[in-house]
Amino acid sequence: MEEGNIVSNQLDLNDIRKEITALDQSLLTLFAKRRALTLEVAKSKVENVRPVRDLQREQELLIRLIKQGKELGLDAHYVTSVFQTIIEDSVLNQQAYLQTLTNPNIQVPRVSVAFLGDKGSYSYLASHRYFSRRAEEIIEQGCQNFADIMQLVEAGHVDYGMLPIENTSSGSINEVYDLLQHTNLSIVGEITQPIEHCLLTAVNTSLDKIDTIYAHGQPFTQCSNFLDKQANIRIEYCDSTADAMAKVYELQQENVAVIGSEEGGKLYQLHALEKSIANQDENHSRFILVARKPVEVAQQIPAKTTFIFATGQKPGALVECLLVLKEKGINMCKLESRPIQGRPWEEMFYIDVEANVKHLAMQEAITLLTESTNFIKVLGCYPVEHISPASVPSSAIATE
After folding, report:
1. Are residues 92 and 175 in the same domain?
2. Scanning 48, 231, 256, 344, which has its CA 20 to 30 A from the CA of 295?
3. Does 10 show up as a binding residue in the annotation?
4. What are the angstrom distances between the C-alpha of 148 and each of 117, 142, 242, 341, 355?
């Protein structure tokens, strides 16, 4: 009887798994159908020129779904998380569609993109994530440094360059800012990529056996707290995370490891010995996409404009420039200063604002800034890629 019960229970488990598999397939079909309908929504906004996002409607949708979920025994946080992801996907797909209509000459099924490192690097992952909505095929071009990326784009050897510009843990990537001073390229896009640093190894081992860690400079800085706790560890710097992972795979030794993402490590048959080793739990890097020609941002899409300027050496010069933005109602979301090469103690200011360069307020601001600065240049206007989730009142989430 006991043996029969075991067989019966096993069959029941197999039946359950088959039913779950069937339900997963049904969910994927429904997700695809929902995504197709959201593109129809985007098409309806072309003639009416309505914004892609309607935060009030998104909030009302989430509240309704949370209530319906509770009636079905589903946790409010679970429902919120699932549908915020679905809404984000919907918004990004609509934006990509509208950008294709606005820039028909530069949207093609196949794109070539240069990035730092090789397959598995964070720039590689960001490139694939960005173009997953925009291209059917990606021709990859790994590079050893940021200057090479820009040179490939400027020479027309690749269509785009993906460059990390800042990180929530280690801050701005100064080398990229310095290179932007001297390029004729335009920023045409951005993407924020979650950075989940792990300690990866090629063979089964333990943390106490690790005496050498390969890493790019940025991951090393972002994981300094974890590394400070490790005794007798030697750091070997590499040009990119991909180079570091390739090195560890090649060595196949129990005493070496690399700092990188678990997703990227799988491309090199590496496994995570330690996960979540970054200084901050929420660690993200922002990447910019550069191209030879600028893009036009559809009116329905939130836009960001990046420009640089230099002021004279006089008191209050920077404040005067910032007041221009305030008077025009333009929100500044980033301000970075970098020294001007060959001109000691003078600085170039980089500014990101939430505005479309073609809008009247932004045009007026640029005109006024041109009059009060020694130099000004717009580096690009591009769609805002980061989608902040619609807020949900705590009363809707609270368990009754």
Report:
1. no
2. 48
3. no
4. 11, 10, 16, 20, 30
